[in-house]
Amino acid sequence: MTQAVTLTAAMRANLLSLQTTGTQLGTAQLDLSTGNKVNSALDNPVNFFAAQSLNSRASALSGLLDNMGQAVSAIQATNQGITNITALVNQLTSITNSATQNLANITTQNVLETTSGNSVGPVADAGLASTVVADLTTAAGTMTLVAGGTTATFTVTAGETLTQLVNQINAVSGLNASIVYGDGTTVSAQAAQATGTVESVGNAYLNITSTNGSSIAATGTGTTLAVLGLAASSVAVAKGGDGANSTDYNSVLTQINALVTDTNYQGTNLIDGNHGPGATTTTALSVNVNELSTNAIAISGVDLTTNGNALNVGGTGLGLGAAGSASLATTTDIANAQTAIKGALSTLQTTASGFANSLSLIQTRQDFTTNLVNTLQDGASQLTIADKNQEGADLLALQTQQQLGIEALSLSSQANQSVLRLFA
């Protein structure tokens, strides 16, 4: 059995004081090494759990900042898409203006000409200035042309040349005739180009027009009309203009739709009108702005396709029509297109303004959340972080106190050492 060591009262008091000082010294060293005055719930339960709550909320809000940043990027990508779509719609305005000018140059002419597949000829390799172009050897008979107030009957005899018939028609006021070849040029143009031997220009076609724009009716006896390949009435043909305008217009519509599809950020497209099959809401993006998910900024998607996305029930898009089907052939077509363009530009402006407002809201909440996170973290720090100057001073004082305690314990043991001297 181990016998207990007996200490004097003075020694026990000094030992207890030294032990307390050692504990305090360890605590001060821990505070300095961690930088916290509250390292666990044992140090200060109230401050520890309060700081933990503040830090937990700050961490949750920091996670929301990432989502807000992605939402900002998605809206910025959308704005870039809208800017470029607006440029394309303005390009449509230029095309319609060009179509208006081209339409003013278009004239309608009534033409009586050899039908496709029938020809008078062929034309041999001969000087085109000669009278022998094609012999009407089987066209004996008469041909009567009626154009407005002009009526003229022409007798065609066997062996007569086509050039002679053209000259007869041109001698009548109100009528004009020419020979058109396979390359689309007239006799006079070919003759002007001829130098030396003129090469064969293919089949010849008779072309008759009225000088006052009236329609032409043709009747004939014998085989005259059949040989010439002429119908009983003229056809209205548009001359001049540029048929490329409608093609250009549809090409731009195709590019608008392609740009709408490509305005996609991380799978989010705010302008294609496609919010999922069976979607009953236009909300394309929802941004939570608090850690409880009880407050969110809903960003509505729109349909900026030219004629409405098929998945967007009831949507008409920009109202520009389906790509590939637009026509600028008439003044009515052009006027309708210009009206649609004005509506599209207005829609784009309103849409851009709406997204700008959503962007401003998110950025405001982003700034607020950033500041709130800093405030929460600062509050937690005030509850737990140690004052290093104070802790350093405490550590120095405790070290001094520890040295003094050791000396005091040494002095209190000297009384027992004096008793040992009596037995020496």
Can you offer a commentary on this structure?
The chain is of the alpha+beta class. It contains nine helices and nine strands. The strands form three sheets. Strands 4-5-1-7 form a four-stranded antiparallel sheet, with helices on one face. Strands 3-2-6 form a three-stranded antiparallel sheet, with helices on one face. A two-stranded antiparallel sheet has the order 8-9. Helix 1 (9-34) runs antiparallel to helix 8 (388-412), helix 2 (45-104) runs antiparallel to helix 6 (244-262) and helix 2 (45-104) packs antiparallel against helix 7 (331-384). The longest helix has 60 residues, at 45-104. It is rod-shaped, with a radius of gyration of 50 Å. The chain starts with 8 loop residues before the first helix and ends with a helix.
Count of strand segments? 9
Terminal Cα span: 29 Å
Mean pLDDT: 74
**Helix content, binned percent:** 40-55%
Class by SSE composition: alpha+beta
The poorly predicted ranges are: 116-133, 186-202, 276-280
* Count of discrete alpha- or pi-helical segments spanning 4 or more residues: 9
**Main beta sheet, described?**
4 strands, antiparallel
Shape category: rod-shaped
Give the amount of beta strand, in percent: 5-15%
Helix-strand string? HHEEEHEHEEHEHEEHHH
Q: Over all CA atoms, what is the radius of gyration?
A: 50 Å
Oligomeric state of the chains in view: single chain
Strand order of the largest sheet: 4-5-1-7
